[in-house]
Design a protein that fits this description.
Shape: globular
CATH superfamily of the largest domain: Peptidase S8/S53 domain
CATH architecture of the largest domain: 3-Layer(aba) Sandwich
Strand content: 15-25%
Oligomer: single chain
CATH topology of the largest domain: Rossmann fold
Radius of gyration: 22 Å
CATH class of the largest domain: Alpha Beta
Helix content: 25-40%
Amino acid sequence: MRSLRRPIAVALFALVAPALAAWISAGDAHAARPAEMHPGIEAFSQVHPGTPIPVIFRTHANPDSFAAEVLAEGATDVSPLDMIGGVAATVTPEELSHLSYDSDVDWIALDSPMASASRGERDDDGGGANLKTVYPFAAGAPGAWSAGATGEDVTVAVIDSGISDHEDFQGRVRARFDMSSVSNGVRDDNGHGTYIAGIIGGRGKGYVGMAPDARLLSLRVAGNDGKALASDVVAALQWVVDHKEERNIRVVNISLTSIVPDSYKQDPLDAAVEQAWLHGVVVVVSAGNYGTDAFSADHAPANDPYVITVGAFDDKGTRDHSDDVVADWSSRGVTSDGYSKPDVVAPGVSVTSTLAKHSLFAQDHQSSIVDKRYITLDGTSASAAIVSGAAALLLSDEPGLTPGQVKYRLMHAGTGVAGSPVPGVDAGAAVTSTVIGDANASAVPNELIDPFTGEIMYDSVLWRSVLWRSVLWRSVEEAVLWRN
């Protein structure tokens, strides 16, 4: 990998050196040395020389004030990210070189592309038996319902492509907000978010989600094509933290993963999910669909030790646990920072849920449409939504539980799944269990986070380790191509 880095670094220097020289000679209030940059920026510039680059600046200055400075430099798509003490922007190489010497800049990250963790259309119809909502039974939801836990009074925020109107939501989508920098509006033109929302809290005849009385909140970050940027997810998490009390937001579902693997300690998105977690919100994320590939467990935010990372198992279309087996494409392994992921697994094969009419899903996966109003898909996206619903059931029964206690209960009340080192979620067992513990008692937070307050430490400096210069360069080119 050394042979790859050198030409990229040289190429980037060749692109920005003239501007840097002019900037340094200008003197004034700028730093003597440039801020550190994530290697993904170098790769982006190598593959697309001269093309504007999506970045996140980490600043110890006021984010609003620094955003104005970035905007004055000529950048576009400028947005302050107070939650992580940063500013997202799209900058030219020349603008980037100028701003890298600003004394208010600590480091500069690539604004990583995010992708949904749904696998798309099925190759077959499962013989018809799989086109039922078997997954609530395979995940133990009826046991929770029998105990009186249905998700009532719990709000689950869905950070995704939006939630379209569907009769199965019965007015429980309490609000919709557009947080996306890549498209406008709150309607789910993609279909992924509506699909996820139905798994969490749908209530239809024959198609019932995990927590059918839960309230849903839509925070749209993905465009019509399902693509999003990490900075938009950070902005959505900031909104959740700011409004969690008034909206009673107890759970956040993120069925999206960064396509660039990295250390959780140094990733802005990981800092954001940890802050939400430490502010009392259960964050449930999909593990991804990379199987056991190298660094399959290193995609944010699934690589973070605080969140509940969910992998997928195949329930074989039955309610019986004895035939459950881990899905071979479900991401699993040990992260570069030494944490085993996922934390739990849940059904993720042939999961049927609500369909957004006239969406991209409805157009592209017509053979997967069921009863005109539902769609059957695979992926850890669905698995995460199932666990978000399980968390809502648990919190409707015991609202005083902390996120760490919810995670501990779900992990310790699960059932064994063939091929998986972690249990399959069992919502009924979790609700009726009395076990108490903190799943994250020994977790080390992101370098931006004060573990005692959950707040950003504004004097923190990231990317001092050698990890980000390692073989996690894999997928950077893919991230670049995503922009085209």
